[in-house]
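Our consortium's second objective concerns turning raw sequence data into structural hypotheses that experimental partners can test. To show how far this objective has progressed, the report includes one record in full. It was chosen at random from the queue rather than selected for favorable results. The single chain below, 398 residues long, was entered without modification.
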Amino acid sequence: MAMTAVAVKAALAALTDERTRKNVGWIAAAILAPIILIAPLLLSLLSGTTQHNNAAVDLVFNGGVIPSTVSAEYAAQVRVMQTCLGMLDSTVAKINSQAEDETLDGNWVKAVFFSLCFWDEHLKLTPSEARDFADCFVRYEERTRTVASGTDPDTGETIYTEETYTVAVPVDQEIAFNNLDAAGYPITEDLVVNAQAVYDRIAYGAADGYTGEIQYGSSRITELDTSDFTAPTTKNAEDLVAYVTHAWESGWGYVWGTFGQTLTESLMESKIRQYPDGVGSYADVIRSKWLGGRTADCVGLIKGYGWLDTDSMTIRYGTNGMPDIGADTMYRNAAVKGPISTIPETPGLAVWKSGHIGVYIGGGEVIEAMGTHYGVVKTQLTDRNWTAWLEIPYIQYD
């Protein structure tokens, strides 16, 4: 440990010059990648335990109170990294506004950035640098579409013209890493392992360490049920609670990028192509646990209710005014929200921490799509380190 600390200190000293840092900083990152998750502890004087490593990730991604026992340097580093990740969130949202077939996984972008950069005591990120970094994970292609451009004054018929537009298309991991390497961010096998570990923790929340109470639903049911809805022609908090409660009772599973569909093999293959890390890495688990049942990811559980057509009893993507947005964007878009310590006793509110969201059903309980290994479960509000509550945009609250 002492040898590692000396090496880090020497590397950081060499990087005090801005030009030098840009030229050699990422080489140092590659050398030190095996200790990325331990490096924050060199700043905070914490011991190198898994618990503390997880605590560093949780603080950066989920917020919360920084322990008074840590150093001022460590606390400052956490805050700077949080600012950088917020900038990446905004950048990924802009990129996804140009997406068409599939969207960029912002949690993966942030996990890689965290693993590359947390150790850098001179860390900073400008909006243009955030865009350059995130652009390593996509390619842009020109497409054409036919649009109505006016009306023929003689015939009254609509005139159609062809226009060109740009679409952002996520690339696979290998291409993304090659792009990062070419942009001056050396990628090593150890860094990839670290990034995957960070990603798993933020994307799947409890997958490696949650010990609080978890309540599971009963046997798998694929039928949708609105018999407990109070106003099925609207989107309201009370019916949202009924919807997620039915999902929990029906034993819904968890698959990244789904929103209540029945998981067929063809849908599974589609999601593996779309999310090779978030789904492909867990294909065996998903097939053994969730194939044939309904599945959703955390924000997909909420969007599924927003997209539910109660007349046809089908979930129709992107309908009823509910856009296809992630958990963090849903939080940012909320007009009414507050710190979790101030949550009112209002069933149907969402509870949020960076990268994850659930539905408060009242009585101190939450229903959430918790992760691949868990599915849709019921947990205690106080056990899950939520940082904020919000009224979900596009849902009516009395």
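The partners drew two points from this record. The radius of gyration is 23 Å. The first helix runs from residue 2 to 14. Both points have been shared with the crystallography group to help prioritize constructs.
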